[in-house]
Amino acid sequence: MFRIDTVVKRSALEKLFGANRTVIHTHTGEMPNVLKVRMIKGPAKVVVKGVCHVLGSDVSGQTVKVRAGKALPFEPSNRCRLQAWLGHGARLWWADPKQAGTSMWYSLAQQVCALAARKKTTVMLVGDTDTGKSTLAIYLANMAIRRGLVPTVIDGDIGQGDLAPPTAIGAAVLSKQVVDLRDVNTNLFEFVGSISPIGFEGLIAKKLGSILDRIGPITNICIVNTDGYVKNGGLQYKAMIAEELQPDVVICLGENVLLLDRSKIRSSQILRASSSSQAYKSRLERLSRRLDQFLRYVGNGSYTAKLSQVKFDYMSKLFSPSDLFQPLIKQLESENMTGMFVGLGSNGSVLGFGVIINVSQGNGIIQIQTNFNSFDTIYLSDVRLSSDRIMEVRLT
After folding, report:
1. Which of 145-154, 182-191, 248-257 is predicted least confidently?
2. SS3 360
3. CA distance 216 to 152
4. CB 381 within 8 A of CB 363
């Protein structure tokens, strides 16, 4: 039997989520047969009273924040009590453990972690949009930590990544269990310059290979999450990545990746995993999360650099400040550079990000909104940001 009491509170919650938000108290009681999964979609704050796990992470007695647009599976014990404060657009529901949560991936995680305990292991996740790749990546990392291993997650989704802003790839070594990769400090970045992989497939594969070479030796298991582009040439693109990374294991989620070209990844073990029903995001939620991720990395500072002291990089091709006077690509035209989201680097490494405020060729300066004040390379992109929305500039 389950008891769900709904209470509307105003005073304290108004400060967190605004007026007229809902507080839900859930007591699991005695559950027949299989314990169901309590899904909670943010924005929400969940107080856990009792034994409970989220994506393999023990959250017993903790307060868990669920970001807007993110859905987390809470897997409580029989005597656990969850208290959830729900913000605008948040909701919660019971889910079948065969379609959500982690029990459907338990045997898979055990198999992968056992391999990583014997040798350094690279795992590549492949699947369509909303099949649960990011969710599985976190779960595998948490299970690896439980076994005393040191996992790394490389986020290769340049449109909807969690470890880097859109247009970039991020990698992080995890020292403790997490429920959301956006709470992790990223260790390494690579800059691509687009939020769509189409036309950038080869560059993305090489960037993933570069970041794996640099971060792989310090971990037991490296989990490479890829984007959801698998149709209309997407599988060939994933095979290209596999050929570059030579992963030990390729995990395929969903039905659209079953035709992945095995001839390109003969050295890999190909495993199939059930897709998760918890991963769906609406188009509006995706846009909102992407804008939030952009703004997290831009910063509030401002820095003015001399054009004579910087060079420009677009798709791994370098351009000098003199190329601004007779632009060789549209990204270097002044009207396209204003508002452009850029990466900032030094000595070949991407260190931070920003937005170009102004380029003055006459004065020989470039002004960038960023919290970084030391860089010698500006990585150009196909994306410009305005004050209220993302405007993608598809320049070729």
Report:
1. 248-257
2. strand
3. 8
4. no
